[in-house]
Amino acid sequence: MRTVAKALTILDLFTEQRPSLSLTEVARATGIDTATCHRMLKVLEGHGYVFRTAATKHYSLGATVLRLARTREMTTPVSATLQAIVDALTETVAETSHASVIAGFQVATVAAREGLRSNRVHVEYGARMELHATATGLACLAYADTAFAEHAFAAPMTRFTATTVTTAQGLREALSLTRSRGYSVADCSFDADVVGVGAPFFNPDGMAMGAIAIATPANRMDKPNLARAAFCVMAAAMDATARLSGTAPRDFIDCYQQLTAAQGQAA
């Protein structure tokens, strides 16, 4: 099992920002010795999960990954569905919107649309979200199953800014607040210049499947904009839940209805 875990750790290194890696880079990033990395990469190459460019001697993801991704999306079109939702969300709020899904004990971005203003936040497709420091992570944790939450509490909580939650007690308080209102706020806790607002969407069992979030330059996120952003992400999350045949828990629906009423009164 450890061999399989190591192979998956290697595959997990490849991103849009790092589409190709040398053997040395793989060994350094994983902490696996070079000889073992080389053997595992050869096996992955033999099965088409990676390929090696002769000229650069760098490895990239292979065609097998593409085949599996295409099969997954054809049978369960999550990415296409979420992309349509975040596109519409950005058109509504003019800010960067993105959607992420829970994958094992990680949360990865599968859809993103940059904001319509010149000063906007960039979110990388495929990015792994820090669970304790981002709106996406907090939204997922607040409504996730027990195993997912326990893994997050056991993991180190890196401090990114002065407002990052770094203790179990602080995280419990943040999740309690998120659950009480149905949406999360990451107030400059991952990036000192960015405020994130997120809400979960749900699987058929009523557990978080992922989250939709808005990322905004902090100087634009005043109280009225925060209220509007929260309403919009919750509406988008409800839409995603319905389109993906999920079931929102009663307390989330109650929070959404309360926020909808408050927005109606404000208008």
Please give a handful of descriptors for the protein shown.
267 residues, alpha+beta, Arc Repressor Mutant, subunit A, Beta-Lactamase, 2 domains, 5-stranded antiparallel beta sheet, 3-stranded antiparallel beta sheet, 10 helices, 8 strands, globular
Description:
With 267 residues, this protein is an alpha+beta fold. It folds into two domains: 2-67, Arc Repressor Mutant, subunit A (Orthogonal Bundle), CATH 1.10.10.10; 76-266, GAF domain (Beta-Lactamase, 2-Layer Sandwich), CATH 3.30.450. It has helices at residues 2-11, 23-30, 34-46, 63-75, 78-93, 135-143, 146-154, 168-181, 223-243, 250-266, and strands at 20-21, 50-52, 59-61, 96-103, 106-113, 184-187, 194-202, 208-217. Strands 5-4-8-7-6 form a five-stranded antiparallel beta sheet. A three-stranded antiparallel beta sheet has the order 1-3-2. A hairpin with a 6-residue loop joins strand 2 (50-52) and strand 3. It is globular.
Using only C-alpha atoms, the radius of gyration works out to 20 Å
Label the structural class.
Answer: alpha+beta
Q: On the 0-100 scale, what is the average pLDDT?
A: 92
Figure out the total of helices. 10
Q: For this structure, what is the CATH homologous superfamily of the largest domain?
A: GAF domain
Please give the CATH class of the largest domain.
Alpha Beta
With strands numbered from the N-terminus, the spatial order across the biggest sheet is 5-4-8-7-6
User: What's the shape?
Assistant: globular
* N to C succession of SSEs: HEHHEEHHEEHHHEEEHH
Number of domains: 2
How far the N terminus sits from the C terminus, by CA atoms, comes to: 57 Å
* Share of residues in helices: 40-55%
- Portion in beta strands: 15-25%
Q: Which regions are unreliable across 5 or more consecutive residues at pLDDT < 50?
A: none
Number of DSSP strands? 8
CATH architectural category of the largest domain: 2-Layer Sandwich
Largest sheet: 5 strands, antiparallel
CATH topology of the largest domain, by name, is: Beta-Lactamase
